[in-house]
Amino acid sequence: MPNRTVLAAIVVAALLAALVSVVLATRGGGDATAALRAVPYPKAIPAPATLGRDQAGTAVQVPRAGRPAIVTFLFANCPDVCPLVAQEISQALDDAGPAADGIDVVAISVDPKGDDRASVDRFLKGHRLTGRMRYIVGTRAELAPMWKAWQVEAQPSGDITKSVHTARVVLVDREGRQLAAYPGGIPFSPEDLAADIRTLTG
Questions:
Q1: What value does the mean pLDDT take over residues 127-148?
Q2: Which among 177, 183, 198 has a CA at the least distance from the CA of 88?
Q3: N or C: which end of the chain has fewer CB within 10 A?
Q4: If you ran DSSP here, which 8-state letter would residue 131 be given?
Q5: Distance between CA atoms of 45 and 187, rounded to whole angstroms?
Q6: Residues whose CB falls within 8 Å of the CB of residue 28, separated by 6 or more in sequence, listed in order
Q7: What is the predicted pLDDT for the residue at 79?
Q8: What separation in angstroms does the CA of 199 have from each of 30, 45, 100, 155, 181?
C-alpha cells in the first residue's frame, strides 16, 4: 500500500511537471518572440549598443535599459520604400494607443550627405513622426560602424534620392535583444506592428 501511495505521488508530480512545461512552452518561456507577428529571428541576439546624434545634435541611444525599441534604417530623400516604412510605423504608433509611449522608435540614416537637418525635419513632419521617432544622422565614418553592427548594407550615392540599403524594421525587447523584424522592402501591416508594440511594452 505505501508503495502505491509513493507511485501515485510520483505520477502526480510528473503530471504537474508536464503541465508546467506545456505552459512555459505556450508562453515561450517568458520570451515575447512567440507572440510577435514580425518574422522571428532563429535566436534572440543582443542589439548593438548604439549612440549617435539626431538632426538637432541631441544624443540618441538605443537600446536603453528597460525600454523596448523599434529600429529602422532610412534616408529622408528616398522616393519610395523609406516613406512607406515611415508611414507604416506612424500608423502603427497611432493604432497602438497608450502603448506607443512605452517604446523607443529610432531611425539610423543610410545617407550621410543627404540627411541634413532640414531634410530630416521635413521627413519626420511629413509622416507625423516629429517627437515620436529619433533619427540618428552623421558622417559616413560615424554611421558605417552602426550599419555593420546592425548587419545592414548601405551604399549611399552622390544622388540624394538614391541609396541602396537594407530595408528592415527591427524589434528589440526590454532586455536589449533583437527578437524579430519586418522586411521594410515589402509592405507590412501597421496593425501587426501595433500588436507587436503592445506585446513588447506589456
A1: 97
A2: 183
A3: N
A4: T
A5: 25
A6: 34, 35
A7: 86
A8: 12, 18, 11, 34, 14
Q: What is the pLDDT of residues 36-84, one digit of tens each?
A: 999 999 999 999 999 999 999 999 999 999 999 999 999 999 988 999 9
Cell numbers 501597421 correspond to what residue?
A: 190
Q: Please give the DSSP secondary-structure letter assigned to residue 36.
A: -
Judge contact between 38 and 178, C-beta under 8 A: no
Longest distance between any two alpha carbons in the chain, whole Å: 86
Rounded Cα gap, residues 42 and 159, in angstroms: 36
Q: Which amino acid is at 129?
A: L
Assess contact for 86 and 74: CB atoms under 8 A. Answer: yes
Q: Which residues of 67-85 are buried (b: 16+ CB within 10 A; e: fewer)?
A: bbbbbbbbbbbbeebbbbb
Determine the 3-state secondary structure of 110 from DSSP: coil
Reply yes or no on whether the pLDDT at 164 is more than 60: no
What is the distance, to the nearest Å, from the Cα of residue 77 to the centroid of all Cα atoms in its chain?
22
**88 vs 187, residue with greater confidence:** 88
Secondary structure (DSSP) of 133-177:
-EEEE--HHHHHHHHHHTT--EEE-SSTT-EEE--EEEEE-TTSE
pLDDT in tens, 5-43: 433 333 333 333 333 232 333 333 345 677 999 999 999
Distant-in-sequence, close-in-space partners of 150: CB < 8 Å, separation ≥ 6: 48, 50, 71, 73, 108, 170
